[in-house]
Write a structure and sequence with these properties.
This protein is an alpha+beta fold. It has 3 domains: about 130 residues, Beta-Lactamase; about 70 residues; about 140 residues, Heat Shock Protein 90. The chain has 7 helices and 12 strands. Strands 2-1-5-4-3 form a 5-stranded antiparallel β-sheet, with helices on one face. A hairpin with a 4-residue loop joins β1 and β2. It is rod-shaped. The two termini are about 70 Å apart.
Length: about 450
């Protein structure tokens, strides 16, 4: 069994799919790649910023330590040192002993341990602790100088001292401060300049990267919407192209069928008159006449559908348009509401009557025993004509496509003709299901149709 032939438009459809989703995929991947790159750059720059800020803090601590060691009373120089280096970012300075008192200057913002080498960051400040090898007094008294062990005490003979133990017999001792000194430290807090500038640049990079990634995603969304609109325009152009070809063919067929149909109908009518004494023969001749009239109606509809000449607009009474549109229909089943409508409109009388007739005929056929409503009013966009029925609602088929009908004996040209008439007047015709049941068709004509 041979495989079914693929549609000639299948390659084009696949190409459109690749173009549509390929562009979206590229934009999304670019946005993800940019986001990952920015995050990695953030981590690297953040680590670099910590290194730079720590280096700046260590340099400041070394400078302050050297400055305080040169003073005989460093605990009294904190305010002066803080004021001296404030321009370089120093905001807090403290001297203290491990587990003891603390002399400080400036407001602290970071709480931490006093272990030398401790480094912390919080917001725009950095805290660093370093050992202070100098001496100072927290009680106002200077500590005594450390004793000298260069010579033995005078009351102890040098030879009476026991010899030092061998190196291997000595127990290791933890390193500590020199005799007479305590573990002292210096604490500084500063507002780093290099790290702050780096973080500012990092925030700008994050902002630019985020905006760029968002722009790529918006571009992907716009790409999808644009391509879908292009596809919609392409489908509409293809539909109009088919309609033009169909109209040309229909026009030729209608013109070619009119003369034979007129001859067929005339001879059938004469034959029906001659068979007045033969009821069966006369019925058959009348059937030929009836079918010829159906063909005449079809050719008339075809010619009306392909009619593309300039419209002849004239002032026509609104009520007269409604009455002429009801000719040949069950007017007793149609409710006309003209409240709020203009008395006269400037339209092509024959074409508008034809369009209203088709809409009303469909409304009456939708519910054979129900009523239809015709409403005419002035709207913000111009003249609005609504035709509502109480039938089952609109079918799923494309109702405005020519030759598409749900009726056995319908031609499927009524709604396409009405829509074409609306477009020829610069308006539109739309159909939708009514919230209370049935369907409603709304024909809108521009403000130029309203009589001034």
């Amino acid at each position: 069994m041979a495989a079914p032939a693929s549609s000639p438009n299948a390659p084009l459809a696949r190409s459109r799919t690749w173009v549509l989703w390929g562009g979206v995929a590229i934009a999304v991947l670019a946005a993800l790649a940019l986001a990952v790159t920015v995050l990695l750059a953030q981590r690297a720059l953040s680590a670099a910023s910590d290194v730079l800020v720590r280096g700046e803090a260590e340099a400041m601590a070394a400078t302050v330590t050297q400055r305080l060691r040169s003073s005989e009373a460093p605990e009294l120089e904190l305010e002066a040192v803080l004021a001296e280096y404030r321009g370089e970012g120093l905001r807090y300075l403290a001297l203290g002993e491990r587990g003891g008192r603390l002399v400080e200057s400036g407001p602290p913002t970071i709480v931490g341990s006093t272990r030398p080498g401790e480094f912390q960051r919080n917001g725009g400040r950095a805290r660093f602790v370093t050992a202070f090898p100098g001496t100072f007094s927290l009680d106002g008294e200077r500590p005594p100088p450390p004793p000298s062990h260069s010579r033995p005490p005078p009351d102890e003979p040098q030879g009476a001292r026991p010899p030092p133990p061998p190196e291997h017999a000595r127990e290791p001792q933890p390193p500590g401060p020199p005799d007479g000194e305590k573990l002292r430290h210096i604490v500084i807090e500063l507002e780093p300049r290099v790290g702050t500038n780096l973080e500012s640049d990092l925030r700008r990079i994050l902002l630019v990267g985020g905006i760029t990634a968002l722009a790529l995603l918006v571009f992907a969304l716009g790409w999808v919407r644009s391509l879908r609109k292009v596809e919609q325009f392409q489908r509409e152009a293809d539909r109009k192209k088919r309609l033009v070809a169909l109209g040309q063919m229909s026009s030729i067929m209608a013109h070619e069928l009119r003369n034979p149909l007129a001859s067929l109908k005339g001879h059938a009518q004469l034959l029906a008159e001659q068979l007045s004494e033969d009821p069966k023969g006369q019925a058959k001749a009348e059937l030929v006449v009836h079918e010829a009239e159906r063909l005449e109606s079809l050719t008339r509809n075809l010619l009306e559908f392909v009619r593309d000449g300039a419209i002849d607009t004239r002032l026509v009474p609104m009520r007269q348009l409604a009455e002429e549109a009801l000719e040949g229909l069950d007017s007793e089943r149609v409710s006309i509401h003209c409240e709020g409508s203009p008395e006269q409109v400037r339209v092509d009388r024959a074409r508008i009557v034809r369009a209203l007739h088709n809409l009303l005929e469909n409304a009456l056929l939708a519910e054979p025993v129900g009523r239809a409503e015709l409403r005419l009013r002035s709207g913000a966009r111009g003249l609005v004509i609504e035709v509502r029925d109480h039938g089952p609602g609109l079918p799923k088929e494309p109702i405005f496509e020519p030759f598409v009908t749900t009726r056995v004996r319908g031609t499927g040209l009524g709604l396409p003709i009405a829509r074409r008439v609306a477009e020829q007047h610069g308006g539109e015709l739309v159909g939708e299901n009514h919230p209370e049941g049935g369907s409603v068709f709304r024909l809108t004509l521009p403000n130029t149709t309203l009589a001034v």
